[in-house]
Write a structure and sequence with these properties.
Distance between the termini: 60 Å
Strand content: 5-15%
Mean pLDDT: 89
Number of strands: 14
Shape: elongated
Low-confidence stretches: 493-498, 526-542, 551-555
């Protein structure tokens, strides 16, 4: 590739443990079209104690580079500080400044591709014919008709809507939507016109024991003049009436802080006036926006990368607000799950545009309600439905292509973190372990698979990604033995009755920092693990045993 002006640089110093100064590994840095590779000199590969690198090399896809920073010149040379989306941090020191200039310029350009042709997704090939077939078949994990038929749709109350078959009604929604049978084409179209980005209320899930539905949409375009839409008001009423067992009320769950909703109203959008919507209960949850979440993760990363005392470490984690934000997300999901399963009311969820906080809370509430989504296949289907089909902007939020940096935010990572919190509290209820979540995140950011490329279904179909690339689901199924939870109670979660609804705690003491995700490259943690392996293993087994006992008592 023309951008690579220096394919390899010798005698590069790598300071992998940033908390130990003047301890380096010497090696050669290679730059390829889709990744860079640091290979230790043979003499350093096994002689540096904690600084040694497994296999003697580190390879990083360019897509996983989050930032490159030039540091002040040192007596040893010119340092480059590289942060990766996987929480790997590398500090390279180049003997010659021109070499540092070439590498910095090359990696900066290659880590900011402007099209999918510039990333590894079109060049990636599985290592066997069997793997090739498996990863092709991964594109067929999700069939929207099969998924909705699983909870009895279409039926007398809910039908498939064809109005978006060409993506003209709502370009960021799936082509096949499910809406109340009483909602005429005029109501559906009118509601779409009144909702931000045309993202009208659409069905996500029906909890069959009560018949209550979870629907999702974007904010209404009310504005400071308090605009109304009779079609949107009728659409919400149709959703309420479709719940035959409890049609006297419906919740609208706005996942934004109240002040944010009011600011959006001043900008021509806003929130529902319950006086205009029949039998609506409006509930507000203060989940912060993408900018706050991005800043929170930056603070967390800074804390974890600093050489600080344990007390400062703990206070830094708390001050980042990351776990506090996860708490609000989980509390919102808990409320939705309770409204549907206990009160029996349908719920309509939205945030601003309905592709971030809405995706998080809709997905998590369904995990709480339905054991199917805690299985390997069900979890994949859930992500395909709530995140991919309903248009979470993966390209923008995960910076998979060079776009506006203000659009980047760890929304999907935060969702995975919340799933980890549930796994930790309910160790027997998930078929997959936390390694599955970590591998999913790593492969998403690596740019090898086409599954998450594109901000919506229309975008992925336009680029013919299912024909030109491989699916991440096939890859994960090939390595399934690494991701099976040995404590999963097979058969215990088959029936979606109320006894299988999860009720997690969101007390501060029960929400944990996900160290296996965020601290996995921290060599101080590695040292502690190596020295205290027997103690740690004993404690882990004790914790799991206690939770298994609690589960048995609860049953």
């Amino acid at each position: 590739m023309d951008y690579i002006t220096k394919p390899n640089v010798e005698n590069v110093l790598l300071q992998r443990n940033l908390r130990i100064s003047k301890n380096y590994i010497t090696g050669t840095l290679y730059t390829f079209p889709t990744s860079f590779l640091f290979k230790c000199n043979e003499s350093d590969a096994t002689s540096k104690g904690l600084l040694s690198i497994p296999g003697g090399e580190i390879q990083v896809p360019h897509c996983q580079i989050e930032s490159i920073e030039r540091l002040n010149l040192t007596p040893s040379g010119t340092p480059l500080y590289i942060r990766c989306k996987t929480f790997l941090v590398l500090k390279f020191i180049f003997r010659r400044e021109p070499d540092a200039n070439d590498v910095e310029r090359t990696l900066h350009r290659l880590s900011r591709p402007v099209s999918i042709e510039e990333i590894s997704v079109l060049n990636y090939r599985p290592n066997s014919v069997h793997c090739l077939a498996s990863q092709r078949s991964g594109w067929h994990v999700f069939d929207i008709n099969i998924e909705y038929a699983r909870f009895g749709v279409p039926n007398n109350d809910w039908i498939q809507c064809w109005l978006n078959k060409d993506y003209k009604l709502c370009p960021t929604y799936p082509k096949w939507l499910f809406v109340p049978s009483e909602a005429t084409s005029e109501i559906v179209t009118g509601s779409a016109k009144f909702r931000s980005q045309g993202r009208l209320p659409g069905l996500s899930f029906i909890y069959q024991p009560t018949g209550a539905a979870i629907c999702r949409c974007s904010q209404p375009c009310v504005g400071i003049t308090n605009n109304r839409s009779e079609f949107d008001e009728k659409m919400v009423s149709c959703i309420r009436m479709a719940n035959k067992k409890s049609k006297n009320k419906i919740y609208i769950v706005d996942t934004r802080p109240k002040v944010n909703a009011m600011v959006n109203k001043a900008g021509g959008k806003g929130y529902e006036d319950v006086k205009n919507y029949t039998d609506v209960l409006y509930k507000n949850f203060p989940i912060q926006n993408i900018h706050v979440m991005r800043e929170s993760m930056a603070k967390l990363r800074n804390t974890l990368e600093m050489a600080i005392s344990p007390s400062a470490h703990l206070s830094g984690v708390e001050e980042s607000g990351w776990l506090s934000h996860a708490k609000v997300v989980l509390n919102t999901a808990k409320f939705i799950a309770r409204a549907v399963s206990v009160e029996g009311y349908s719920v309509l969820i939205h945030c601003s545009d309905g592709w971030d906080r809405t995706a998080q809370t809709s997905s998590l509430s369904q995990i709480l309600l339905d054991p199917y989504y805690r299985s390997l296949n069900g979890f994949q289907v859930l992500i395909e439905k709530e995140w991919l089909a309903f248009g979470h902007k993966f390209v923008d939020r995960c910076s998979l292509l060079c776009r506006n940096p203000d659009e980047a935010s760890p929304i999907f990572l935060q969702f995975l973190d919340c799933v980890f919190q549930l796994q930790n509290q309910f160790p027997t209820h998930f078929e997959f372990n936390e390694n599955y979540l970590i591998e999913l995140y790593d492969m998403l950011t690596a740019g090898k698979f086409g599954t998450f490329l594109g901000n919506n279904e229309k975008d992925r179909n336009r680029q013919r990604l299912s024909e030109r690339t491989f699916s991440i689901w096939g890859y994960l199924w090939e390595n399934i033995n690494k991701f099976i939870n040995p404590y999963f109670e097979h058969g215990a979660d088959i029936n979606s009755d109320n006894s299988q609804v999860l009720h997690p705690s969101t007390d501060d003491r029960d929400l944990l920092l996900w160290t296996k995700m965020y601290c996995r490259y921290d060599l101080c943690c590695e040292a502690k693990t190596a020295m205290d392996i027997d103690v740690e293993t004993s404690n882990d087994l004790k914790a799991v045993t206690e939770k298994l006992s609690e589960a048995e008592v609860g049953n």
